[in-house]
Amino acid sequence: MKQARMDGAFGAIVTDIDVRTLDDDAMCAIAQLLYEQRIVVIQGQDLDHATYVEFGRRWGKPIDFLSKKNTLAEFPEIIVQSNSAATPGILHNNASHWHCDSSYEPVPAAVTMLYGVVSPSQGGVTLFADLIGAYRTLDEQTRERIETLEARHMPGRGKVAQGETMIRYDTMPDELRENADRWGPVTHPLVRTHPVNGAKGLYGLGGTPFEVPGMELEDGLALIARLKAHATQDRYVQGYKLMPGDVLLWDNLAVMHRATPIDYSDAPADRRLNYRISVKGLPPFMAGLPEQAHELAAV
Description:
Layout: E1 2-5, E2 12-15, H1 24-37, E3 39-42, H2 49-57, E4 61-62, E5 79-82, E6 111-118, E7 125-130, H3 131-136, H4 140-146, E8 150-153, H5 174-180, E9 186-189, E10 191-193, E11 200-202, E12 209-211, H6 217-231, E13 237-241, E14 247-251, E15 255-259, E16 273-280
Parallel strand pairs: 2-3
Antiparallel strand pairs: 1-2, 3-14, 4-16, 5-16, 6-14, 6-16, 7-13, 7-15, 8-9, 8-12, 10-11
């Protein structure tokens, strides 16, 4: 296995492996790299749906996606992400806002992965913000203030900043809204302890947070906005454009991410197609490692 650091703040690229043949020791090595570098790209893969799902399940339990229409019938663990011209306008660039995957669930996703099939000639970069690094540079007074604070989350309920796009809860299609109501409001800490490395980091600052219990509504939203602005400064942000054959993994408890706007077109040079899997819990291949005092260890 060859690995190299990405240019920029964080991230690693791995080559000369086939994810279909990795033993547990090799998976642990990739996991260690992921928890250190926040995002890992494994290049040069050729996966069918079944093999991709098998690889995904090695990282944890697949989440139940909000939108069933975008999942594969035989492989509901996979959601299809494309910029087909047939995509309804309300769904265009709806991930172009900072968020943590499934922060609207009681137990959020721990790892998300994308498998690249088709990449556009222009655009298609995904951005990542290091929430652990951003927490470490907060002033002591702010860290003490937020240490015990929580935020309430629901899909489409958070505020978006200038330049971000998101489907608001009150404009969601019926299917999405019904699924969005499945759990009702859930609560997560503003500062989360990572279940593997024990590092403290900010969490869930975009997309879904709509209230900080114990604070006036506008004061709580202003606090979240300030923390989000801090965490998305250039020094904490890394970008990567998914290419065919890439498997891109990110530590969803250590980063926020967002898509960048893209045209919706079926022209060959414009098309984008990838497959997403998000999972909860700790990877089964890490069983037996020292447990952290964290709810994800029990999923």
